[in-house]
Specification:
Length: 132
């Protein structure tokens, strides 16, 4: 069994946070293939990789669970900015633009505060296969 993220656009946690941090800059494009959190998100690509490694009977089950960033938006803000991928989006911005991005991020996190924590939709594949 293997659990992998589905495509980035199916994962609100990745797309909403990324949009809030890059709204005033050109959004960096993710690599078309290669090592990336979403690189196994396309079932046909992943099935091909597994088949080449000798796996058969590959199946994909859709998993949809929220990603929890913390009990409140302030904690979630700190948690998001601890993630290197999101830190990288702010790294090359001038001070004013970076502060605007942080303000948008705070608003996005506040909008996702459920009262029981800050949560975003997520989608993953639970992949099962047999090796011969």
């Amino acid at each position: 069994m293997l659990l992998v993220w589905q495509d980035r656009d199916r994962n609100e946690w990745a797309s909403a946070i990324r949009r809030s941090l890059t709204a005033e800059t050109a959004t960096p494009t993710a690599p078309a293939s290669g090592p990336d959190a979403f690189s196994l998100g396309d079932p046909s690509t992943t099935e091909g990789i597994l088949a080449a490694a000798g796996f058969t009977d590959v199946s994909f089950t859709d998993v949809r669970e929220p990603v929890y960033y913390g009990p409140d938006s302030a904690t979630a803000f700190d948690n998001v900015l601890r993630l290197l991928k999101f830190q990288d989006l702010l790294a090359n911005l001038d001070a004013a633009t970076a502060e605007q991005a942080r303000t948008r991020l705070r608003a996005t996190l506040t909008a996702h505060d459920t009262g029981g924590g800050v949560c975003f939709d997520s989608r993953a594949w639970l992949i099962t296969a047999r090796r011969h």
